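Subject: Sanity check before I submit

Could someone independently write out the structure tokens for this chain? I want to compare against mine line by line before I put it in a report. The sequence has 293 residues.
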Amino acid sequence: MATSAQPGQLGLAGSAGAEALATSGTASTEGPERPGPLQDETLGVASVPSQWRGVQGIRGETKSCQTASITTAEAFVQARKHVDAEVQTEIPEPVSLPSVPRYNGPRLAAFLRKVEAMVTRELNKNWQSHAFDGFEVNWAEQQQTVTCLHTLSYPPAQGQGLHVTGVSWNSTGSVVACSYGRLDDGDWSTLRSFVCAWNLDRRGLSPQQPSAVVEVPSAAMCLAFHPTRPSHVAGGLYSGEVLVWDISRPEDPLLWRTGLTDDTHTDPVYQVRAAARRAGWEVTSSRARPCRP
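---
Independent answer below. Compare away.
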């Protein structure tokens, strides 16, 4: 936008018109002595093109490439093998079973007469035994836990502070016996002790009341039942004596004792057991010197 004025008017006004314009502003009316008002005028746009851009231009290069041709090959194979085979079994021949020989009557009768007495004796022993009284077969699966059935004790022995030194079951499995003595240090030779037995098959069993009680003149170190006589039990004492009792006779249970002399065994007896092929008793002492009464 530019502002223009008529040349004639500017020439006529001179310096006086310029001064009047500066002091009084724009005149409200035109006159011969006053300049005309300034007006807005729109002129054409002038453009100057850039010569530098045309000279530079756009620089570019075009290139191309191509890979080598792909090599392909086709191959196939086929195999076939066929075999036929046949087999046939022959008709099996019947197998003849060996004939069972007939038993020899006289020899069988002689054998039965020979073993009759022994079998009858064993049957009578089993019939009189109480080992399986009250036993009931349990076909259910057995439990793996251990259950305490009885807690047996003898209050007088506990009152003296005695210890259980040995336990043994009789041949029927219904009677258990224990010996009371002492296992700590001290003079045991004059200490009185006990041998107690409980019949577990007896009705009204009292755990603190033994079926049989035997007073022993010295500390009992061990005991063992006879393998074939259920009521006979032997005990070894600290004094070196070995005693045999019959617990079925409560009034007079003592059957046999070694006694104390200059030639008898005087060391503590730690084990008693029945001889393998004899009815006597074999005693093992602390000095491992056997004594056979």
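---
OP: Matches mine. For the report I'm noting this point. Residues 155-285 form a domain with the Methylamine Dehydrogenase; Chain H fold (CATH 2.130.10.10).
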